[in-house]
Specification:
Layout: H1 14-25, H2 31-45
Length: about 90
């Protein structure tokens, strides 16, 4: 591997730098390692190595949200709202 001697300088908010450092430290990487990896992947894919489109956010209408049931500590959906194809109810404890 070639020697890493070229400098890239950028300015970020201190909190962003701190939180990002913690994230990459869990992977055994420094911020310099992370930036280098980002640049390498950008070259490999010919652009940003991730999708920049925002994730769609769920839209809830107040009229359709059921109030929390104190017996369960959360909302309990009626059986007729169960879509057997999605399997969501399969994970719920009754």
């Amino acid at each position: 591997m070639a020697s890493r001697t070229a400098e890239v300088k950028s300015y970020v908010e201190p909190q962003i730098k701190s939180e990002a450092s913690e994230v990459y430290a869990r992977w055994g990487m420094s911020l310099s390692d992370a930036v280098n990896t980002f640049l390498i992947k950008s070259i490999e894919v010919g652009g940003l190595p991730f999708d920049m489109r925002p994730e769609p956010r769920p839209v809830y209408k107040a009229s359709t949200v059921l109030p929390a049931d104190p017996a369960y500590g959360s909302s309990v959906l009626p059986d007729d709202m169960d879509n057997e194809e999605d399997g969501i109810y399969d994970r719920l404890v009754g």
